[in-house]
């Protein structure tokens, strides 16, 4: 079951024609990633976006109900691949594939997921 994050669309997320600006999709995907993975952050530990692909499918207009679903596709030693879908009024509007890396700022290197975290990620459970 994918993790769902409801999005509050702001008027400033749209262009002069009332369409959702293309950069807002990336911000919404980021909010949903943080919603799923936020508990991994800690002192000197960060989540770095290593890769992102965004495919637009349909327009989103101000006033539509928007949410993002997030599915864990693959869990590596220190990275996780996520597949996300941005929905407007329950219709798919964009898909986002991203790779996020757990990063140790002190060591300036990727940090392995603890085993309990890996198991929860593999089950697609939110960590927050």
Automatic annotation (TrEMBL):
Molecular-function annotations in GO: fatty acyl-CoA hydrolase activity
Record Pfam families: 4HBT_2
Record's keyword annotation contains Hydrolase: yes
Lineage: superkingdom: Bacteria
Record's keyword annotation contains Cell membrane: no
InterPro entries linked to this entry: 4-hydroxybenzoyl-CoA_TE, HotDog_dom_sf
Keywords of this entry: Hydrolase
Record family assignment: Belongs to the 4-hydroxybenzoyl-CoA thioesterase family.
Designated name of the protein: Thioesterase superfamily protein
Native species: Truepera radiovictrix (strain DSM 17093 / CIP 108686 / LMG 22925 / RQ-24)
């Amino acid at each position: 079951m994918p993790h769902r994050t409801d999005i509050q669309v702001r008027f400033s997320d749209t262009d002069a024609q009332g369409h959702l600006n293309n950069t807002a999709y990336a911000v919404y995907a980021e909010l949903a990633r943080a919603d799923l993975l936020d508990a991994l952050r800690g002192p000197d530990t960060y989540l770095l976006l290593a890769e992102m692909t965004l495919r637009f499918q349909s327009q989103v207009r101000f006033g539509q109900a928007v949410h993002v679903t997030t599915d864990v596709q693959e869990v590596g030693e220190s990275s996780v691949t996520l597949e996300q879908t941005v929905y407007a009024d329950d219709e798919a509007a964009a898909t986002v594939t991203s790779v996020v890396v757990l990063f140790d700022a002190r060591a300036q290197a990727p940090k392995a997921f603890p085993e309990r975290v890996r198991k929860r990620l593999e089950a697609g459970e939110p960590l927050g």
